[in-house]
Each structure stands twice: as C-alpha cells, then as structure tokens.
Amino acid sequence: MPHFSDKHKSSLPSPRKIRRGCSKELYRTVKKLKVYIPENKIEEAEDLYYRKVIGNLLWIHENSSNRKALSDWWDEQVSPEIASLWEVDRERLSDAFRHAFGS
Fold first, then answer.
1. Which tens digit of pLDDT belongs to each residue from 6-15?
2. E strand or H helix at 43
3. Nearest one of 101, 86, 91 to 36, comparing CA atoms
4. Which of 5, 25, 53, 83 is least crowded, fewest Cβ atoms below 10 Å from its Cβ?
5. Could you tell me if 83 and 60 are in contact, meaning their C-beta atoms sit under 8 angstroms apart?
6. Residue 102, Cα to own-chain centre: how many angstroms?
7. In the chain, what are the helix, strand and coil shares in percent, each to the nearest 5?
C-alpha cells in the first residue's frame, strides 16, 4: 500500500532554482530600499546569499512554509554582511527584506 504522506513532500530545490530565488528576493529588497546599489555589489550580495542558503539548505527547506522563521534567519545570518557590502543601515535593509519577502 502506498504511503500518501510522501505524496506532499517536496524535494530539495536545484541550485539553479535557489540562485534565481536569491536573485529575485534581493532585487525586490533593493526596490523597497529605494537606493541605488551598483550592479557589481548586487552580484556580490547574490553570491553571498546563495552560499548562505546552500550552507543551511536542509533547515531552510524544512521551514519553507514559515516565512517569519526564514526572515529571522536572514536577519541573523545574511543581513549584516549585505548591509556592510551595500553600505546601508542594517535595520532598514531588514525591514525592506521582510516587506519584499512577505513576512
């Protein structure tokens, strides 16, 4: 007899899907910040964010339906480095991310 509980479990996303997701989230965050960020700094931030997500992929996948937990993780693990890279206020960056991310 098949196990129906396995039917709704999703598999881990591909690296391409992760990279595209990180790129879209940062793009929306920049739009909410309403400041100019040079393209090379956006690319650096995307790479940094991608590496952080890959490093915590299992936890992120397990909490994929909990946007608040994911936003809290982003605040702690990602925002300090991106704020210093982009030379923006960390609180403002975190608020922009949460607003863009929908949490």
1. 555 678 899 9
2. helix 39-55
3. 86
4. 5
5. no
6. 12
7. 75, 0, 25
Residues 6+ apart with CB under 8 A from 41: 85, 86
Give the per-residue SS3 of 44-78.
HHHHHHHHHHHHCHHHHHHCCCCHHHHHHHHHHHC
Q: Which residue is associated with the tokens 């991608």?
A: 50
**Distance (Å, rounded) from C-alpha 101 to C-alpha 72?**
11
Q: What is the pLDDT of residues 14-70, one digit of tens each?
A: 999 999 999 999 999 999 999 999 999 999 999 999 999 999 999 999 999 999 999
Q: Which amino acid does the sequence have at 62?
A: E
Structure-token pair, residue 91: 């609180």
